[in-house]
Amino acid sequence: MVLCFHVHENVGGRSSPQSTANKVIVTVINMKFIPCQDQCTKEGTHCEGCGRSFEEIKQTKQLVASVVKFAREQGYENSNEFARYFGKKVSKKLEE
């Protein structure tokens, strides 16, 4: 994962981006997933409870909703078994 930050300078009371020569590029080698801690915040760009970005939280919720929708459309009687299977398959693919 590569994060890119732009340096801004205050010009006439407004913040404006400086030239692209002032970019700071940070490479993140490992990022640890921390699940929701029921201490969610709404300010800024990241939740202070779990530290994840609000965009990551949004995308995770969308993925979960998609999997749930799929399982419901299939009409599985044993949806818990499907959830366990799905989790195992994702874990296995991540280890490849």
Structure description:
There is one protein chain. With 96 residues, this protein is of the alpha+beta class. It has one domain (2-95). Helix content is 40%, strand content 17%. It has two helices and four strands; from the N terminus they run ββββαα. It has helices at 54-74, 79-95, and strands at 2-5, 8-11, 14-17, 24-27. β2 (8-11) and β3 (14-17) form a beta hairpin. The two termini are 18 Å apart.
Low-confidence stretches: 1-10
- Work out the radius of gyration: 20 Å
Extended strand count: 4
The helicity comes to 25-40%
Round the mean pLDDT to the nearest integer and report it: 80
Shape: extended
Structural class: alpha+beta
Number of helices: 2
How is the main sheet built? 2 strands, antiparallel
What is the domain total for the residues? Answer: 1
Binned strand content: 15-25%
Give the spatial strand order of the biggest sheet: 1-4
What order do the helices and strands follow? EEEEHH
How far apart are the termini? 18 Å
Provide keyphrases for this structure.
96 residues, alpha+beta, two-stranded antiparallel ribbon, 2 helices, 40% helix, extended, disordered N terminus
In a few lines, what is going on in this structure?
This protein is of the alpha+beta class. It is 40% helix and 17% strand.
How are the elements arranged and paired?
Elements: E1 2-5, E2 8-11, E3 14-17, E4 24-27, H1 54-74, H2 79-95
Antiparallel strand pairs: 1-4, 2-3
